[in-house]
From TrEMBL:
EC number(s) reported in the record: 2.4.2.9
Protein name in the entry: Uracil phosphoribosyltransferase
CDD domains given in the database record: PRTases_typeI
The protein's required cofactors: Mg(2+)
């Protein structure tokens, strides 16, 4: 499938470890949330490798001047957690991107039709086309929620080439939709599972990420 060329599954032992912790049904809620935080951190690290804009400067060490490379503060960065579950990844992402703006987007899926609708939208009316945007969506299942989020962002001026999606587990139906509409977009996921069940949940997946993270 062509979309596989844009989906990155980092081969990192820490990502594999925390994914295993998150998948385990015996993991208590507090540890599950820790696992999600760590996955948010390490997946953001991988996603930002060739995405952040740097600038060359000079600093003074205690002994002498030294050439240095720093993140360019003039290039805006935005993080968009998809509520609720995306909040579980936010702490890890913010640790690496402390200067980013955070725009919350609340989406809910109708469990009968599997269609997504928006109940909270804190996106600005317009977003600078140079803004690097990181979407936090732990489960890319049917694709309904992420496609709605992408529509809202691109309508406000976001350049899909500068978008990155962080997910914990993804499935082919969502990836296919994204790939067909936004072929230039990149996705970073801890794993790609093979299928969905009749209720639209990823199998084997990790259950309802929002419920498990917040103990509801």
């Amino acid at each position: 499938m062509s979309f596989q060329l844009r989906v990155y599954v980092p081969d990192h032992p820490l990502i594999k470890h925390w994914l295993a912790v998150a998948r385990d049904q015996n993991t208590p809620n507090a540890l599950f949330k820790t696992a999600m935080t760590e996955l948010g951190r390490w997946l953001t690290y991988e996603a930002s490798r060739h995405w952040l804009v740097t600038t060359e400067t000079e600093v003074e060490t205690p002994l002498a001047p030294c050439a240095a490379t720093m993140i360019n503060p003039q290039v805006p960065i935005a993080v968009v957690p998809i509520l609720r579950a995306g909040l579980a990844l936010l702490d890890g992402a913010q640790t690496l991107l402390p200067l980013s703006s955070v725009y919350h987007l609340g989406l809910v899926r109708n469990e009968e039709t599997l269609e997504a609708s928006c109940y909270l939208n804190k996106l600005p009316d317009t977003i600078d086309s140079e803004t690097r945007v990181l979407i936090l969506e732990p489960m890319l299942a049917t694709g309904g929620s992420i496609m709605l989020a992408l529509e809202e962002l691109t309508r406000r001026g976001v350049n899909p080439e500068l978008l990155r999606i962080i997910s914990v587990v993804a499935a082919p139906p969502a990836l296919k939709q994204i790939g067909e509409t936004y072929p230039q977009l990149r996705i970073y996921s801890a794993f790609v599972d093979e299928e969905l069940n009749d209720q639209g949940f990823i199998v084997p997946g990790l259950g309802d990420a929002g419920d498990r993270a917040f103990g509801t």
